[in-house]
Amino acid sequence: xxxxxxxxxxxxxxxxxxxxxxxxxxxxxxxxxxxxxxxxxxxxxxxxxxxxxxxxxxxxxxxxxxxxxxxxxxxxxxxxxxxxxxxxxxxxxxxxxxxxxxxxxxxxxxxxxxxxxxxxxxxxxxxxxxxxxxxxxxxxxxxxxxxxxxxxxxxxxxxxxxxxxxxxxxxxxxxxxxxxxxxxxxxxxxxxxxxxxxxxxxxxxxxxxxxxxxxxxxxxxxxxxxxxxxxxxxxxxxxxxxxxxxxxxxxxxxxxxxxxxxxxxxxxxxxxxxxx
Length: 276
Hints:
Blueprint (H helix, E strand, L loop, with lengths): L19 E6 L2 E6 L10 H16 L5 E6 L10 H6 L17 H7 L5 E5 L2 E3 L1 H8 L2 E5 L3 E3 L11 H11 L1 H10 L3 E2 H6 L5 E3 L4 H13 L3 H14 L4 H16 L2 H11 L10
Parallel strand pairs: 2-3, 3-4, 4-6, 5-7, 6-9
Antiparallel strand pairs: 1-2, 7-8
Helix pairs in contact: 1-3, 4-5, 5-6, 5-10
C-alpha cells in the first residue's frame, strides 16, 4: 500500500455525528460507537460516521493515537440485522453498473496514520470483530467475545478477516475462526494472541488510555512513519482484498442461504442451508 494515502473528505462533520462520539484530549482521540440500545449495531449512517471519524483523526495534527471502543454493553455487534433483512443496510446494485470497492469505513481505519488501540468492552462480532482487527493493538475486558459470524449468515468476512486475522493468530487458527464462525471468549483471545491485554471490565478504556499516553508521548512524525512501516510489512494489498471481498458479499447477499441465515437468526432456530 502506498504511504500518505490522501484521506477523502468526510461526508459527515464530527459535530453532526449521531451514532458516534468523537473526543480529543492530550493528543489522544477516542472514537466511541454509540448505539447502546442496538448493541452498537451498524447501519449505513454508523458506517459513514466511522469512516468520517478516522479520516478526521488521520488528518488532525493534534492527534497522535486513537482509541476505538463501544458504549456498554457491547463493542460492536456487527451489522444491524433488522435493517439487513429489509435490504436497507446493503442495497442490491444493478450488476452491469456496479464497481466493487473496499468498504470505506474499513479503509479509513486501515489508512489512518495514527496508532489505533481497540478497547473491546464487550461482544465484537461480525463487522465488530473486523473493526477490532483493523486496530494495531487490542485490549479487552473479561466480557469481550470475538466472532467472525459471516459464515453463519451465508457471507464472507470483510478485509480484516482475510488480511489481518491470519497475520495475528496464524493461518490455521484464522481458518478455524472463519470457517466455523464460533465465538472466542476473552481468555482464549488473549491466549491465541488476538488480544494483547485482558482487564476487568471497568478498567478496559482506562488501560487503553494508559497505553495511548505512552504512545502519544513519542515524536509524532516518527509514529506516523512507524505506522506506515507496519502497513508495508503486512503481506497483501488490502485494497485488492477488500474489493474482492465486497464482490463476494454482494454475490452471496442475493442467495437463499444468506436469507435463511438471517431469518433463522431472527427466529432463533437452526438454519437449513441448501447451497443456492
